[in-house]
UniProtKB/TrEMBL annotation:
<dbReference type="InterPro" id="IPR015421">
    <property type="entry name" value="PyrdxlP-dep_Trfase_major"/>
</dbReference>
<protein>
    <recommendedName>
        <fullName>alanine--glyoxylate transaminase</fullName>
        <ecNumber>2.6.1.44</ecNumber>
    </recommendedName>
</protein>
<comment type="subunit">
    <text>Homotetramer.</text>
</comment>
<keyword id="KW-0032">Aminotransferase</keyword>
<comment type="similarity">
    <text>Belongs to the class-III pyridoxal-phosphate-dependent aminotransferase family.</text>
</comment>
<keyword id="KW-0808">Transferase</keyword>
<dbReference type="InterPro" id="IPR015424">
    <property type="entry name" value="PyrdxlP-dep_Trfase"/>
</dbReference>
<dbReference type="InterPro" id="IPR005814">
    <property type="entry name" value="Aminotrans_3"/>
</dbReference>
<dbReference type="GO" id="GO:0030170">
    <property type="term" value="F:pyridoxal phosphate binding"/>
</dbReference>
<dbReference type="Pfam" id="PF00202">
    <property type="entry name" value="Aminotran_3"/>
</dbReference>
<dbReference type="InterPro" id="IPR015422">
    <property type="entry name" value="PyrdxlP-dep_Trfase_small"/>
</dbReference>
<keyword id="KW-0663">Pyridoxal phosphate</keyword>
<dbReference type="GO" id="GO:0008453">
    <property type="term" value="F:alanine-glyoxylate transaminase activity"/>
</dbReference>
Length: 429
């Protein structure tokens, strides 16, 4: 069956709002290392990794063996009404890695579920439905997480279970304060945070939730220290701080294991998902014990933290740590960032290079007025695919190319990708 035939079947039974990449969508059927093969036999270097999910890559023996061992027991599922050994072992490891004192962990199935759980805990703990979020943010596709998403392209409903106010600072490239030095930029954003609290809320706000680097928002990156400065203001009002680490966790940013560590602050809670399972569905929340235990009703997760997913996740973290993939993300990220900046010197359409480690993006603009150029962005993504490189897309205006390859990326593969990207930019001439 061709991709075109499969696409017709997809359109007949799947919702129209389920977005697909490329003029002619592809099916990925095989993978090894950092490379995948589609249903028509074409091979690609994968620089988006299932939206930052295949953190280690494809066909990793240690992870496959951990899953096979669990399957061989005959137990794929029991639910959280029973003890699950791998879940406990994984929770112990994440609690220790979190830096949160005496942390507790709850497992779900996705980043959306993790952020929903965080909202539930924060609003219950503070007895308030008021929430602060960042402009240009994205936290998931469910009712509560759509409500705290500050990006019109992903905000499907104005209805909301929470009262949300949005704060400046995360997306610097198009900020009115973009030309300020870092310290001054942080100061005006802190002043804005305080003003939002004092003028648009009743004061008893439940939490601020923020991505250290905005994922769907185009890997928008504030200066280091912004959220540390925010936390000082939040503490004055007793407002909880939740770091959404769904895309930034597990060493991907290179310099730190958690993205929020660049801001020299320990949050009250962190949410996680994506790369933890290297493709297996898992998400969760790690938090202060008083916050985690603040629910006054029973709860559970039927599939969250199941034996298969936690076995895969435990093997993934062990592999990440044993092979120091955080250091590799820093090295390969620096190589990739330098190469992208070199391309930017040749092509004025590349307006901004941003991100950290192996979480990098380029904002594509119309030279002269810096306006977003979504059409050229889509063309570049397609041209890269035609040359054997898969990259992501995002941003508030759909004009950002996102690159987040598996953290096992090699120097040679990075060079190969940069050559393809340069060739793709040449097609704009």
């Amino acid at each position: 069956m061709t991709h075109a035939e499969l696409w017709e079947r997809h359109k007949a039974v799947m919702p129209d709002w389920l977005a697909l990449y490329y003029e002619e969508p592809i099916e990925i059927v095989k993978g090894s290392g950092r490379r995948v093969t589609d249903g028509e036999g074409n091979s690609y270097l994968d620089f988006f990794a299932g939206i930052l999910t295949n953190a280690i890559g494809y066909d990793v023996a240690e992870i496959s063996e951990a899953v096979r061992e669990q399957l061989s027991s005959g137990i794929a599922h029991t639910s959280t009404v029973y003890l699950i050994r791998k879940q406990i072992e994984l929770a112990e490891q994440i609690a220790k890695l979190s830096g949160i004192e005496n942390a507790k962990v709850f497992f779900a199935n996705s980043g959306t579920e993790a952020n929903e759980a965080a909202l539930l805990l924060a609003t219950q703990n503070r007895r308030s439905n008021q929430v602060l979020a960042m402009r240009n943010s994205y936290h998931g596709r469910a009712f509560g997480t759509v409500a705290i998403t500050g990006n019109r392209g992903w905000s499907a409903s104005s209805l909301s279970p929470v009262n949300v106010q949005y704060v400046q600072g995360a997306y610097r490239y198009r900020s009115p304060f973009r030309d300020l030095p870092d310290a001054d930029y942080i100061k005006v954003c802190v002043d804005d945070l305080r003003n939002v609290i004092e003028t648009t809320t009743s004061g008893d706000v439940a939490c601020l939730i923020a991505e250290p680097i905005q994922g769907v928002g185009g890997f928008a990156s504030p200066p280091d220290g912004l959220y540390g400065a925010f936390k000082q203001v939040l503490d004055e009002y007793g407002i909880l701080f939740i770091s959404d680490e769904v895309q930034t966790g597990w060493g991907r940013t290179g310099d730190h294991f958690w993205g929020i560590q660049a801001h020299d602050v320990v949050p009250d809670a962190m949410t996680f998902a994506k790369g933890l399972g290297n493709g297996f569905a898992i998400g969760g929340l790690v938090a202060r014990p008083d916050l985690m235990d603040s629910l006054s009703a029973n709860s559970l997760s039927t599939f969250g933290g199941n034996p298969i997913s936690t076995s895969a996740a435990k093997a993934t973290i062990d592999y990440l740590l044993d092979n120091d993939l955080q250091a590799n993300a820093a090295k390969r990220g620096a190589q990739l960032a330098d190469g992208l900046r070199g391309i930017a010197e040749e092509f004025p359409e590349l307006g901004d290079v941003r991100g950290k480690g192996l979480m990098l993006a380029t904002e594509i603009i119309k030279p002269g007025d810096n306006s977003p150029d979504a059409a050229s962005t889509a063309k570049l993504q397609q041209e890269a695919k035609n040359r054997g490189l898969l990259i992501g897309k995002g941003g508030l205006y759909g004009n950002v190319l996102r690159m987040a390859p598996p953290m096992t990326l090699t120097e040679e593969e990075t060079t190969e990708a940069l050559e393809i990207l340069r060739d793709s930019f040449n097609t704009l001439r």
